[in-house]
Amino acid sequence: MSTYDPAALECLAAIVEEGGFERAAQRLNVTQSAVSQRLRALEAQVGSVLIVRSRPLRPTSAGQLLLKHTKQMRLLRADLERDLQELAPSAPGGSREDERISIAINADSIATWALGALHDLVRQRLPLEIIVDDQDFTQEWLRSGQVLGCVTTLKQALRGCKMVPLGAMPYVAVASASYAQQYLPQGLTPHNFREVSFLSFNRKDDMAAEFVARAFGLKRVALNHLFVPGSEAQMRAVAAGWAVGVMPELMARQALADGSMVDLAPGRSLPIQLYWHCWNLESELLDALSAALTGAAAQALVS
């Protein structure tokens, strides 16, 4: 098997992660010409194009394999760094900034339970990168080799990966007390949901439609949407009376308790089952990440 130059592999990763040659050069502190030369040398060694020069840039299938290999090497170096720190605490430590450990998590988990789970690891100087995407799409980041683990709604493990159930996150339909009184005094019903707007992250987000469909036994639902990208931003938008929000009960709990928000469909919730997927590797760091996330989920989510 060929031995690949670690600098060339990190160059490939930088191009993909930074989205271009110029930003990759800035991160690696080399010229843009040097980035191009390293990539060409790696492509010549592999015998295949590794980057599709599109907008945005994206790795080819061969590029994804090398990117995954590069991420795995970062993980091994991070494990070694931790072990050396335990043996020689006074030794200089800390991974380079460009050797980040990347995971993909959905925004609602970050806003509720997941961020706290990672606190101790970050305090240990883990060079963490959290990529945010819809929970139905985070697995694509793992599939492409750009992250080492993800929180997703998909149950089937990818080849070379392992899966752990985390629990269910219940979602409820809420609105500000004044909005509910003005537009939905009887709450949500099968007859009035088309008369109000619902918040969504983006056009991929079908949470609100799924909630309404399940709550009222409907097969297809068309809603009026306002697009607000961000869990905390959606909470502020609901509080300001913009629209109805289908939010994690964890986020809405305090506002429901103090009466500033109203549950528009009491007794109805949409449980979203979440799973942690990660590479099936022997790694103390990966095990620590998995333990932190599964432990926090056990405290916050519904079994």
Automatic annotation (TrEMBL):
Keywords in alphabetical order: DNA-binding, Transcription, Transcription regulation
NCBIfam families to which the protein is assigned, alphabetical: argP (TIGR03298), PRK03635.1 (NF002964), PRK13348.1 (NF009888)
Family: Belongs to the LysR transcriptional regulatory family.
Protein name (Swiss-Prot/TrEMBL): LysR family transcriptional regulator ArgP
Organism name: Acidovorax benzenivorans
Cited InterPro entries: ArgP (IPR017685), LTTR (IPR050176), LysR_HTH_N (IPR000847), LysR_subst-bd (IPR005119), WH-like_DNA-bd_sf (IPR036388), WH_DNA-bd_sf (IPR036390)
Domain HTH lysR-type: residue ranges: 4-60
Any single Pfam family the record assigns to this protein: LysR_substrate
